[in-house]
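Milestone M4 deliverable, item 7.
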Amino acid sequence: MKTHIASNYQEMSQQAAELIIRQVKQKPNSLLCFAAGNTPLGTFSSLVEAVHEGRINFDQCKFISLDEWVGLGASDEGSCRQTLDHYLFERCGIKEHQIHFFNGTSDDLDSECQAMDDFIRSHGTIDLLLLGVGMNGHLGFNEPYADFEGVSHVAELDSITKQVSVKYFPGQQDVQKGITLGIKHLMQAEMVILIADGDKKADIIKTALQHEITNEVPVTVLQRHPNVYVYMDEAAAAFIR
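Output delivered:
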């Protein structure tokens, strides 16, 4: 793991964005996978700015989803797709044909998983994966005790994930499950960027970097990945300095 400690959230977000910009310049038709949630929003903002400045062009890229809340779709505020649409895809002029996303409202979630696995396989592998980390160490919706050999699947959400979920939704949402890429997909990605900010993430970042590898804390598996960049602000890095 290559670790970088930024002085603040904005600097951390810009550093992560610069790595994405470098990847797309090197391979304009990259297959990209970006987490939703609050942590990546600064990185998205930096990428939008770079597009408007002509420093990056996503026209040849393809985008896949990391995960989605089961029961929510693109029109639902707080869904992963709605977040990426609003903060990245629409602002960067990314077209629908470039996006392959889990449909959390589908009546056949197994088919959604199979379609995602087939899509990734047809493109070889994910070129760059941008991840946040949950308070319980989850990656996407690979919750504690997730199968390290798992591919796309539907997961029962951990109690901590369900507690944290309320901040994403303007109204009451009874989310119980998520649909997600598996750990195997994450580990096969050519490059992984893990971002974390704030003192609330200090404990889990220390665990991610220094704890033994265990599926009880899924993020620890990234220690085995050959090409991981970890970007943190000073607060998130408080216990590893």
